[in-house]
Amino acid sequence: MIYLQLSTGQSPAECQFFAKHVFHKICREAAQYDLSTEIISETPSKYGLLSAVLAVSGSRADEFAARWLGTLQWICKSPFRPKHLRKNWFVAVSRLPEMPALPENDEIRFETCRAGGKGGQHVNKTESAVRAVHLSTGLSVRVESERSQHANKKRALQLLAMKLAEHLSQQNQRYQQNQHSQLYQLERGNAVRVFKGMDFIE
């Protein structure tokens, strides 16, 4: 299994709009490769997506990922700012480290609480929701999607491990950016895939 991270960084609305299209296209193309996908995390914005992490599994996962890794370019007049002169928008797809070993229990503080939202009386009677906090980094996740506390705890561990991997990747990226201040501009000029117009024709 591999983990693909889609990111817009601090890019404007147009890049966020493009990112949402890219995310859906990645999922559709994965199906054509007979691959299974699972959305690990997704950060939506008013205009589309700020970032997302997708798990991809199957015999052709590496071949598939190679088609997407790098900078993606969208050439189109801004759908939000008609008078804006810029027509080139970029998002990045990177591969996260493999899922690390699940953190040990002594590294995590578990908190339980009643699940909120819809679900009738059952969802509020028991403290089935679980919040897991990684003590050394302060990273946390909250899970209430399952009915049992045990299932939510297991899922929380998995999500926390993924969040730790993403955190490590971001730290590495920041280090590389500090060491190579012109890296981003260089990558923008070397898109691995280019899409054009509001129909995103490649």
UniProtKB/TrEMBL annotation:
InterPro entries: Pep_chain_release_fac_I (IPR000352), Pep_chain_release_fac_I_sf (IPR045853), PrfH (IPR017509), Prokaryotic/Mito_RF (IPR050057). It comes from the Bacteria. GO terms for molecular function: translation release factor activity. Residues 114-130 form the Prokaryotic-type class I peptide chain release factors domain. Transmembrane segments: none annotated. PROSITE patterns: RF_PROK_I (PS00745). Belongs to the prokaryotic/mitochondrial release factor family. This is Peptide chain release factor 2. It comes from Alysiella crassa.
